[in-house]
């Protein structure tokens, strides 16, 4: 194997070879191995994205269906999903992309024996979630797997100021001899976030019918990544934080959600309806005996007043909720009158040029005073208040392909 003067030095310093180890003419076998394996990481990613682009695109699209993420989040999320596909999903039900890549490198027969042996050890790679137990130096960490409690040494490509002891890391670890390195990239979490994440993940593992942490992480990784980017695992969206003045009000919201879920409509319509209903209850304080009537009225209200819906007649929805058309109509008029200002505000907002419906937040549609402490929203709550956020249960309800 040869290295050009202008290549990055194999010692991992980030400097060009001519400005680093070339001066001393000393490069250890470990550095040579690291250099070769780092290059193989990029070759593997290229092999996957160019040779199996359609296969990967179909899988990624399946997981991203009906997700509402900004462009930067989606770009990073796609990379993590591709990484998961490479090591986990069998192409044509025969081999993973990682296994195919290993066979390709065997046929080429260009790798040193020790490098080939290390590459073969990557085949069992699974996503891992680990706690940072010690920062050894700028490039080396000691981590502990949250499932097996096994401690490992991890080498970073460059110093990462964001990593702290007591924090945690999520990614795919590849064996590099006496230590491991993350495949392409990893997610780091602060020490104050870690206990909540550990609790959520361990609870999911306890509820799963799987023998070990590796199988569990292979199974839930796409949903886990979606939850982290879509809703921040362990945090609640504003919808989950609403405090209802009357249990019957919340019962209406739950009934509405159930029917919209059965229709397989995107989650934003559930949340939009619940928020309109919450605003109506806050203003009008309705008194009623049958929650089904107002759930039906709310269903019709959202269906009729969102311009790209209108799926049902009033009779259809009355039948769906098993209420009379007359009672639905009366409750609907109350909603329409009570929410006239909010509906006008919503329509004006949605008419803005180049507006992305996926990025609309509660504050965009409703007045700021809807979100103070008196109405059940703590001003210190997390920033993620889009009503298109991922359901907090999502890390454990997505099935492995």
Structure explained in plain terms:
The protein has 16 helices and seven strands. With 401 residues, the protein is of the alpha+beta class. Among the domains are: 125-235 and 392-401, Nucleic acid-binding proteins (OB fold (Dihydrolipoamide Acetyltransferase, E2P)); 238-381, Cyclin A, domain 1 (Orthogonal Bundle), CATH 1.10.472.10. The protein starts with 20 loop residues before the first helix and ends in a 36-residue tail after the last helix. Residues 369-401 are annotated as: Disordered. This is SEC-C domain-containing protein. Residues 384-401 have a biased composition (Basic and acidic residues).
List the helices and strands and how they pair.
Elements: H1 21-24, H2 29-51, H3 53-64, H4 71-88, E1 90-91, E2 95-96, H5 97-108, H6 113-120, E3 127-135, E4 140-145, E5 151-155, E6 168-176, E7 179-189, H7 194-207, H8 213-230, H9 238-241, H10 247-262, H11 267-284, H12 291-305, H13 314-321, H14 325-338, H15 340-350, H16 362-365
Antiparallel strand pairs: 1-2, 3-4, 3-6, 4-5, 6-7
Helix pairs in contact: 2-6, 4-8, 10-11, 10-12, 11-12, 12-13, 12-14
Labels describing this entry:
401 residues, alpha+beta, OB fold (Dihydrolipoamide Acetyltransferase, E2P), Cyclin A, domain 1, 50% helix, 11% strand, disordered C terminus
- What is the ordering of alpha helices and beta strands? HHHHEEHHEEEEEHHHHHHHHHH
Q: Which structural category do the helix and sheet elements fall into?
A: alpha+beta
Arrangement of strands in the largest sheet? 5-4-3-6-7
Per CATH, the class of the domain at 238-381 reads: Mainly Alpha
Overall pLDDT confidence: 79
Total strand count, please? Answer: 7
Distance between the termini: 39 Å
Largest sheet: 5 strands, antiparallel
Return residue spans where pLDDT drops below 50 for at least 5 consecutive residues.
231-237, 367-401
């Amino acid at each position: 194997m040869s290295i050009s003067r202008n290549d990055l030095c194999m010692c991992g310093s980030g400097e060009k070879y001519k400005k680093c180890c070339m001066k001393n003419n000393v490069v250890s076998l470990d550095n040579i191995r690291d250099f070769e394996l780092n290059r193989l990481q990029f070759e593997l990613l290229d092999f996957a994205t160019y040779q199996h682009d359609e296969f990967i695109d179909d899988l990624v699209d399946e997981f991203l269906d009906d997700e509402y993420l900004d462009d930067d989040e989606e770009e990073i999320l796609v990379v993590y999903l591709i990484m998961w596909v490479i090591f986990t999903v069998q192409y044509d039900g025969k081999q993973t992309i990682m296994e195919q890549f290993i066979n390709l490198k065997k046929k080429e027969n260009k790798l040193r024996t020790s490098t080939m042996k290390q590459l073969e050890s990557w085949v069992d790679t699974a996503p891992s979630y680990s706690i940072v137990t010690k920062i050894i130096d700028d490039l080396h960490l000691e981590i502990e797997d949250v499932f097996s409690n096994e401690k490992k040494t991890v080498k970073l490509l460059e110093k990462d100021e964001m990593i702290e002891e007591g924090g945690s890391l999520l990614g795919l670890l590849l064996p590099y001899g006496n230590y491991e390195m993350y495949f392409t990239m990893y997610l780091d979490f602060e020490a104050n976030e870690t206990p909540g994440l550990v609790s959520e993940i361990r609870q999911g593992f306890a509820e799963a019918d799987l023998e070990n942490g590796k199988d569990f992480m292979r199974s839930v990784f796409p949903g886990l990544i979606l939850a982290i980017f879509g809703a921040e695992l362990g945090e609640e969206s504003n919808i989950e934080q609403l405090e209802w003045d009357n249990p019957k009000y919340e019962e209406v919201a739950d009934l509405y959600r159930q029917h919209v879920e059965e229709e397989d409509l995107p989650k934003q319509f559930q949340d939009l309806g619940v928020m309109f209903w919450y605003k109506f209850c806050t203003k009008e304080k309705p008194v009623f005996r049958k929650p089904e009537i107002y759930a039906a009225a709310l269903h019709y209200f959202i269906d009729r007043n969102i311009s790209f819906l209108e799926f049902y007649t009033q009779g259809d929805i009355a039948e769906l909720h098993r209420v009379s058309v007359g009672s639905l109509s009366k409750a609907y008029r109350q909603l329409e009158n009570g929410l006239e200002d909010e509906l006008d505000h919503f329509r004006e907002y949605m008419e803005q040029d180049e507006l992305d419906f996926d990025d609309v937040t509660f504050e965009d549609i409703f007045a700021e005073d809807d979100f103070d402490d008196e109405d059940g929203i703590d001003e210190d709550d997390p920033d993620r208040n889009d009503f298109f956020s991922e359901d907090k249960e999502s890390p454990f309800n997505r099935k492995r392909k």
